Amino acid sequence: MEKHRVVITGIGVISALGRNCSEFWQSLREGCSGIRPIKAVDRTQLRFSNVAEVCNFNPLDYFEEKQVGFLDRFAQFGLIAAREAVDNAGIEWTQDLRERTSIVTGSCVGGQTSEDQGFVELYCNQRKNLHPLTVPRVMANAAASHISIEFGIYGPAFTLSTACSSANHAIGQAFWMVRHGMSEMAIAGGSEAPFSLGHLKAWDAIRAVSSDTCRPFSKDRRGMILGEGGAMIVLEPLEAALARGTHIYAEIVGFGMSSDAHHITQPLAEGAQRAIKAALQDAELQPTHIGYINAHGTGTLANDPMEISAIRSVFGTHAEQLALSSTKSMHGHALGAAGAIEAVATILALEHGILPPTANFTEPDPQCDLDVIPNKARESQVEYALSNSFAFGGLNAVLAFRRWE
Fold first, then answer.
1. Which helix (H) or strand (E) holds 266?
2. CB–CB of 85/187 below 8 Å?
3. Which domains, and CATH codes, for the chain?
């Protein structure tokens, strides 16, 4: 089967770091954190108070009131990101292209806000009937469906849910579909809005959330910080992008995945290694080709040394020459949207020749003894980069990107 080179011609993002790619990138390069006290719920009922929230978000700035009734917050984020990605890709839709375009999205919890509201109405307020649009708001594929409706896209559209690896799995599947000619174009990414009280109480119970902020790879790290938002990218064959003279942000060159087959919450370095190796093999790259890794880097005691161990195992002595950072230190851990937000961060880093930092870093941890770009962005012309996602359930997904000249 003929393989096409696949490039990214559109990117869109909304997160705690900004409402679009320009704002997002400015915050990343300046090392600005979007972590602050939560406003969505009463934080006095939680053990933690800080999250990475899209502040002062009003859906009526983006949607008509009637449309808002169909859209949970997570689907709103996905559609807003898709609009930006499609717009800056400069797509001229034809009937044939609409039928040959795929949509692949990722979400960990779907319409969590709407679901929580329904339970409050049912169990607390003793309502006999729920909102009639509860099901279409809750379903995890809502973002994919609304993207399809808005742009009149008739090709395959589906959603993957693999916890924190959801968006990487979605982008990887879309990449393979375009590479092998199954789709002429794809819109892929993820979105998440997990800030309902019920869901936050569940995170409270697992004791994985930091009491102050997220400081990945730092010796005094205390855990993750939850985030929200959405990011989408447009993928198409290189020859199609060149033919229409559109801007190319980067090339996607490889995708690898694995399962730990180990533990439902405790990560395993061997599983992460397999996914990294699979991505390198798929991209036909040697470890020495990689210059930057956007790490999964959650800031938990278990994840960070596991990831460093996996990187050292795969890259050997070259690990000492690698630069890696966790942008979750700024935009938080957006669960099923994390991989998409971090893919956009990696793509922009390659395009601008600036590697985003690991913010909030205080002191080195002997178990995390690689170059984690502490606190300040760094100018560096890197040709190849990886973006890691390692999820609960031991589900791992790694993307490989190449700078476009």
1. none
2. yes
3. 6-244 (3.40.47.10), 255-403 (3.40.47.10)
User: 73-89 and 112-119 are packed helices; what angle lies between their axes, rounded to 10 degrees?
Assistant: 160
Residue 1: predicted pLDDT:
67
Burial (CB < 10 A; 0-12, 13-18, 19+), residue 201, is middle
What are the contacts of 88-97 at 24+ separation with CB within 8 A? 88/10, 88/11, 88/12, 88/21, 88/247, 89/9, 89/10, 89/234, 89/246, 90/9, 90/10, 90/244, 90/246, 90/247, 91/10, 91/185, 91/234, 92/244, 93/151, 93/152, 96/184, 97/184, 97/185
The burial class, CB within 10 Å (0-12 / 13-18 / 19+), for 123 is exposed
**Torsion angle (degrees, nearest 10) of CA 41, 42, 46, 47:** 110
Dihedral sign from CA coordinates of 358, 364, 370, 373 = positive
Residue 388: name the closest of 208, 197, 172, 149 by CA: 172
Looking at the DSSP bridge assignments, the partners of residue 399 are: 255, 387
Active-site residues, by number, are 164, 296, 333
**pLDDT computed for residue 322 by the predictor:** 98
Q: Give the C-alpha separation, 57 to 298, whole Å.
A: 25
Token code pair at residue 130: 């729920």
Give every residue of the chain whose pLDDT is below 50, as ranges.
none
pLDDT tens digits for 199-228? 999 999 999 999 999 999 999 999 999 999
pLDDT at residue 327, as a whole number: 98
Say what the pLDDT of residue 2 is.
81
What is the per-residue pLDDT for 405? 87
Residue 133 CA to residue 131 CA, distance in Å, equals 5
The token pair that represents 373 in the structure block:
């770009």
- How many residues in the chain? 405
Instruction: Give SS3 for 126.
Output: coil
Q: What is the pLDDT of residue 310?
A: 98
What pLDDT does 45 receive?
94
3-state secondary structure of 115: helix
Q: Taken in order 273, 279, 285, 288, is the CA torsion positive or negative?
A: negative
Direct distance between the N- and C-terminal alpha carbons of the chain, in angstroms, rounded to an integer: 27
| Paired sense of beta strands 229-237 and 250-259, if any | unpaired
Retrieve residue 23's tokens. Answer: 């704002």
Which tokens belong to 3?
Answer: 């393989």
Contact 225, 332 (CB under 8 A): yes
Cα separation, 355 vs 349, in Å, equals 5
